[in-house]
Design goal:
Chains A, B: This is Probable bifunctional methylenetetrahydrofolate dehydrogenase/cyclohydrolase 2 isoform X2. Two copies of one chain form a homodimer. Chain A has helices at 3-11, 13-16, 51-71, 88-104, 119-131, 150-156, 168-175, 184-195, 215-223, 273-276, 290-306; strands at residues 21-22, 47-49, 78-84, 107-113, 137-140, 248-249, 255-258, 265-268, 282-283. By secondary structure, chain A is of the alpha/beta class. The first copy, chain A, is extended, with a radius of gyration of 26 Å. The interface between A and B is large, with 128 and 128 residues.
Amino acid sequence: MPRNLLATHCTTEHNSAASWLSAPSFLCWSPLLEPLCQCIFLRHEAIVISGTEMAKQIQKEIQQGVESWISLGNRRPHLSIILVGDNPASHTYVRNKIRAASTVGICSEVILKPQTVSQEELLDIVDQLNVDPRVSGILVQLPLPDHVEEQTVCNGITPEKDVDGFHIINIGRLCLDQHSLIPATASAVWEIIKRTGIETFGKNVVVAGRSKNVGMPIAMLLHTDGEHQRPGGIPKLITSDMVKEGATVIDVGINYVQDPVTGKMRLMGDVDFEAVRKKASFITPVPGGVGPMTVAMLLKNTLLAATKSVY
Amino acid sequence: MPRNLLATHCTTEHNSAASWLSAPSFLCWSPLLEPLCQCIFLRHEAIVISGTEMAKQIQKEIQQGVESWISLGNRRPHLSIILVGDNPASHTYVRNKIRAASTVGICSEVILKPQTVSQEELLDIVDQLNVDPRVSGILVQLPLPDHVEEQTVCNGITPEKDVDGFHIINIGRLCLDQHSLIPATASAVWEIIKRTGIETFGKNVVVAGRSKNVGMPIAMLLHTDGEHQRPGGIPKLITSDMVKEGATVIDVGINYVQDPVTGKMRLMGDVDFEAVRKKASFITPVPGGVGPMTVAMLLKNTLLAATKSVY
């Protein structure tokens, strides 16, 4: 993002009023330079975004949401936390969550179990909480002991009460751009970006780390930023200058174009095949590449379905 | 991938025997150079991977799978395809699928409906196929007419019969590294890469296009290549030379390190904060960045769950 755009950002009413942005202490703006070029100014440090301050603002909004929900005659929201063992970090996290819940008027309870608890017992507890109309949200504090499968326990929570957003259905909905309960850390990163006024649409974003509960959902949230399109397919979109020497190029494009010589319609991919093949190490043609393989894989899926090999 | 590695690849028994790899016509290998250095050779063109040939091989494998399934006294796999309207491309695709199914011994049927079919009727058909024990796989040929919501229809298919792999549960399972029916195009790309012997683990992969039915599942398949790890977190992993001038840096790392001066344990993120803040335009600190925001978003999820705003 060029600095001139940033300057515009920082001086908008929205951002200058935001309590979570601390302006760098030695920001220098030369009044002499300003008439010459608005975009030349010196700034040596990033604006530090205070998650603490932004969280206070969001907690205020949640508190208002809770109050108006209750004022309509509804039950107060209730968060049940299952905490296993005595990992000090986990206990600290749970304490913070309970304290914050109480600040915004959300009831909470902690169900404490020893390190030796069985997976079966955890699933039983989850089942009870699933059907308890008093309970709005269920959270299993991770990590669980090695003898318990975290994914099995997380998927035991009914998706509607899965406030950590780790259930298969919540992840699937997130990936497919449907409303879902979003994993809290990913959601935190998203709010930090959006409330600071940073545009991500069309930008390159690097997510360092590919964990399933943090990196992956962040990548998916940013992936679904803005409308996604049915793949258009553009003949020769991928030219040889875009391709690293020795790369493998798999072309999934499907385009019908008129052959300038014969006048007939001809199938083409998205890759400039003749140019790129000179640089790549492996390449798939169109037709005769991904297309027939797709049909084969559909049949394989049918066999997997028939033989009940997945479900 | 360096050329020397490629040379090794191409001469392994597995790959040299593969019928889907066509060696470039003017591959030059100088016998004089060979004793000097095995990795110096000239090659001007990529090896073309024939999806057509690879698909034939896979179809043989499927045919064997079908036969052995039936020989155990099971019903022959059956694929039901719902085709709406008269889009010529869709009709061609469906014809190809039926022909290939018959080749491998899979029964298929096409349920043809006019462009004016209602979403309700489509969902009814899907429901009947869902409970029909004769039917192993259900496929709705896309695109559907504008008055029908594709996602609603695709999610009407029971996940066990969703051979296109577009159901929320199949996508969620794919993203979380669990067995699932994988969308056929993504699966095709995966097989092409793997059967050619190309390593993707630890490599940079560019997926151009971010459609939900092709680009996203391909990215997710490659994302889950190899074991994923609980995020370790490494203090000062992200240094200022990795960060573009003016970038926004959001640090989700959590590390407890001993302060060399005070000897006390101190919380740190993964970013070299003091160095990176001089280059970035926005930055979040640790502590006081993503952490409190995560707690706030958890509470927001609890409120959303209580007010039934998602489900």
